Amino acid sequence: MSRDGSLLLEFTNVNTYYGDLHALKNVNYTIGKGEIVSLLGGNACGKSTTMKTIMGIVRPATGTVIFDGKPIEKLPTSERVKLGIAPVLEARRLFPRMTVYENLEMGAYTQPRGARFSEDLERVYSLFPRVKERRNQLGGTLSGGEQQMVAIGRALMARPRLICMDEPSMGLSPLYVEQVFDIIQEINKQGTTIFMVEQNANMALSIAHRAYVLQTGAVVLSGTAAELRVNPLIREAYLGELKVDVAA
Amino acid sequence: MTTADLFLQQAINGLSLGAMYSLLALGFTLVYGIMELINFSHFNVFMVGSFVAMVTLQMFGLSGQDTILTGLPLVGVMLVAFLASMTLCGAIGVAIERFLLRPLRAVKGPAAMITTIGVSYVLFNAVLLSIGADSKNFPNPLPPLTFAIGGAVLRLREILIWIISLVLMGGLTYFVQFTRLGKAMRATAQDPEAARMMGVEVDRVVMTAFFVGSALAGASGMIFGLYYNLSKVDIGFAAGLRAFTAAVLGGIGNVPGAMVGGVLIGLIEALSGQVVGTAWTDVIIFGILVLVLVFKPVGLMGRVAPNKS
């Protein structure tokens, strides 16, 4: 692991609004190079807004977002992708009427074509042999698990330094969830930093190094995964100690 | 002419009209596919295109149907007229997008659509004031070469219209299917936010859609002139509405759908004019539009709401 303690992404006092709705309240995150950091929380707590703020789909009203030492909060989305931030979107969001291969090409949209493209394509195909089998099929015709593989592959095609994943386990069968999390760990070991929004706290904390807990737009708890796993509040609210955990 | 020959003749005419509607319908469908905007200025960009072609042909000393060109001069003059009308219309389309619609991009509701109606009237009145309201003779330097197919007549004009249309539609299909920008256009049409997060610059894609769509309207306007031997300030409304119907018929937002829809509308127009009478043409065409909207709102080749799962 290439964790050397230096920061890749940093949110400082970020406030984001949707009209009157205060979606992120003075939020601070730090994500170190080589880390897997997970963002936990219930519905509508600001997790997806965090992802959109990183990608530049929404702009923070105040606060700074620093990527690799550079403020990026005013940059358009395409510039952020060029700097090395790639998304794995909630519900996969493949281009449904484009083939798997074309979806991967879109992932490499900001990359020069040529030898590097073939190299990256081979890397994705070797990580996901199933994606190679399906390369001429339309994105919309794949199963949820296959779509998730393509979505992760599509992010890798951008040669990202940071992958932002929004609910990678959502809607997948337990078997695929296991596989997807194994792959995420594998990608991280190969040197890519991961920031992951996840409802399935159990799975997320099993592979994350650190995590933040969001509640109604504010960070209420943060720490290493090991600390959070034994935190009584987390055990009660997210790990299903008292409730039935449907996701597990 | 026997009845069969009459039908064949009308089918030939219908294919030429259809090619014209297809090219015009593509502009509606490209812009709608990318930004869900019905661009009413497209009607009169088409009209301007036919006048640009007319003026270009006149600059070569052509007027009316008396001067006949052959060989290289004919090909050259035709090519220059098509390119002039396509380039100028493309530029008008880009200007409309850049200066009038982009500032409204973030505004929800019908503001952008209403702006396009306004632009349509500005173009209409600009031409009305500068060129006048009466019908103008459109120069046609094509030799009166004809081929007999049974009892029907195939003119050189038809062949020219079909070749130009096939080349343009083939080129568009190649562009949309295989080029980087074309793929970005398709991705944006299918999921604009996801396309943005792949690094696609949406402004560039929108501008491309306007340029390509308006350039095709320019070519369509020149075809109108060649087909009817005239141009007039109000030709945009009837042709534009029929082309829009063609786009809806094929499934708005769908590129092959607009091509097929345009040809169908052209054939329906020519054949219904023969069978029922030209007075009924609009009744039939817009009757079909209503039926499509009632029974298959996504159009013949359209798809139900995109699968985003």
From TrEMBL, chain A:
The record, for CDD domains, names: ABC_TM1139_LivF_branched
Q: What Pfam family does this protein match (any one)?
A: ABC_tran
GO molecular function list: ATP binding; ATP hydrolysis activity; branched-chain amino acid transmembrane transporter activity
Q: Which PROSITE patterns match?
A: ABC_TRANSPORTER_1 (PS00211), ABC_TRANSPORTER_2 (PS50893)
Domain (ABC transporter): residue spans on this chain: 9-241
By its UniProt entry, which InterPro entries does this protein fall under?
AAA+_ATPase, ABC_branched_ATPase_LivF/BraG, ABC_transporter-like_ATP-bd, ABC_transporter-like_CS, BCAA_Transport_ATP-bd_LivF, P-loop_NTPase
Listed A to Z, the keywords are: Amino-acid transport, ATP-binding, Nucleotide-binding, Transport
Residues crossing the lipid bilayer are none
SMART domains registered for this protein in UniProt: AAA (SM00382)
GO BP, one annotated term? L-amino acid transport
Belongs to which family?
Belongs to the ABC transporter superfamily.
Name the UniProt record assigns to this protein: ABC transporter ATP-binding protein
Q: Which organism is it from?
A: Limobrevibacterium gyesilva
Q: What is the lineage of its organism?
A: Bacteria, Pseudomonadati, Pseudomonadota, Alphaproteobacteria, Acetobacterales
Automatic annotation (TrEMBL), chain B:
Task: Give the UniProt subcellular location, in the record's own words.
Answer: Cell membrane
User: Membrane topology per the record?
Assistant: Multi-pass membrane protein
Primary localization: membrane
Q: Which GO terms describe its cellular component?
A: plasma membrane
Alphabetized, the UniProt keywords read: Amino-acid transport, Cell inner membrane, Cell membrane, Membrane, Transmembrane, Transmembrane helix, Transport
Q: Which GO terms describe its biological process?
A: D-alanine transmembrane transport; L-alanine transport; L-isoleucine import across plasma membrane
Give the molecular function GO annotations: L-isoleucine transmembrane transporter activity; L-leucine transmembrane transporter activity; L-phenylalanine transmembrane transporter activity; L-valine transmembrane transporter activity
Q: Which family does it belong to?
A: Belongs to the binding-protein-dependent transport system permease family. LivHM subfamily.
Keyword field contains Disulfide bond: no
Q: Does the keyword Plastid apply?
A: no
TM ranges are 12-31, 43-62, 74-100, 112-133, 159-176, 205-228, 248-268, 275-295
According to UniProt, the name of this protein is: Branched-chain amino acid ABC transporter permease
Q: Which InterPro entries match?
A: ABC_transp_permease, BCAA_transport_permease
